[in-house]
């Protein structure tokens, strides 16, 4: 009995192609309707390309700049305001001064090409050094111009200028003169410009005690760098010379007395005649005796500094120092040359753009602060608005930023429609319907028919290919469910009838038939 029932089971499991044939007919009708639709696919292609181009332009020129610009403007404003907040809280700037200082910084940024944030930090440094009023603005102006000609950033230049002015007094040394002397010293030396400012700053207190001016300090360090190229080492040499002249120790005083000198007399000569003249005088008094010179200065760095400055009997060092001393117009002349420099003009344009960004950010920051402080109220207020009003508000706010992505989406969608219209007039879509028909006529498994159909539309491109594959899967799912339901219904009715005939339960009948079927399958295999 198992041998007779197995072919019957196989027959029942054979695919019912009625629904497949029906699907093939629907596909043919779909192709016919598409072919009869009068749409110029060329115009669709043109629109799709233009929409895509428009979307790209708006995304690049509107969406991204709007988002990036708002973010950048807010950050510029926050950083800029932070420096002035520090001035008020830590540097003694009053609230009445702040607005005027802000405007001065913004104007100076446009003029010099230094960023507003850099100048704001420089101004904070100046005010922290105890310099205020017009002098503070003079130092800032000189620092900005010094930075523009390559002396370092504004804060580094302000460092040495504030040290010089605090050491010698604004009445004795102006910010412009100090910046000119610094620039001339950098030009005469071999060291990096940014290295001069911090090194000179540490030498000024002791130099002032000896009556040595800023110009001599800067010139001496500059000259020594011509040989070693190291600003820090040169500054250490000069510091050693100053220390031994300020307070001779040990055998130094004995040696000076041996040659008819005193430490007080040497210091007075130094204050009146300058550094190089003093070293020349000492060398002459000692008769060129290097051992006596070492006994006076003792420290190796100091001795090397003296010998370096006395090269060519000090004439070369004296010339450099004289050039630095007389360089009162150096900064102005160097800065004027920047007017024809393309890089400087670009920096000026950029600084003006940053100033405008700060102005925008200053307007955005309070709005964002208010929004952050009242987030719950804003969200609640917006949620209580009628839905059409909410939609309209969001649409207006996001319109500019959304145009790009929307246009690109429209271009993609239009391109897909055009592709399907072309597919309707192609052999590929006809092959798709033919594959369905062949599958139904031959009674093949639906998986094979769907595979043939998907392969047939491969030439239509990814959009149509996905659409065809989706259609095949939908049809397959429908037919599979329909056939499974039909077989299940027939099987249930057969079991119920047999159970009634034999008086068995449905479970007993099912187990018996299953065992018989499997046994026949093993014998047949």
Secondary-structure map with pairings?
Elements: H1 2-13, H2 18-36, H3 41-90, H4 95-112, H5 116-128, H6 133-148, H7 154-168, H8 175-188, H9 193-210, H10 214-228, H11 231-246, H12 251-258, H13 263-273, H14 275-285, H15 290-297, H16 300-309, H17 315-325, H18 330-336, H19 342-373, H20 375-384, H21 387-424, H22 427-442, H23 446-456, H24 462-502, H25 506-524
Helix pairs in contact: 1-25, 2-22, 3-5, 3-19, 3-21, 4-5, 4-6, 4-19, 5-6, 5-7, 6-7, 6-8, 7-9, 8-10, 8-17, 9-10, 9-11, 10-11, 10-17, 11-16, 12-15, 13-14, 22-23, 23-24, 24-25
The shape is elongated
- Report low-confidence residues grouped into runs of 5 or more: 5-17, 396-403, 406-410, 435-482
- Give the mean pLDDT: 73
Major sheet, described briefly? none
DSSP strand tally: 0
Question: Compute the gyration radius: what is it?
Answer: 46 Å
The secondary-structure class comes to mainly alpha
Q: Return the string of H and E elements.
A: HHHHHHHHHHHHHHHHHHHHHHHHH
- Count of DSSP-assigned helices: 25
* Estimated helix fraction: over 70%
Distance from N terminus to C terminus (CA atoms, Å) equals 16 Å
Strand content: under 5%
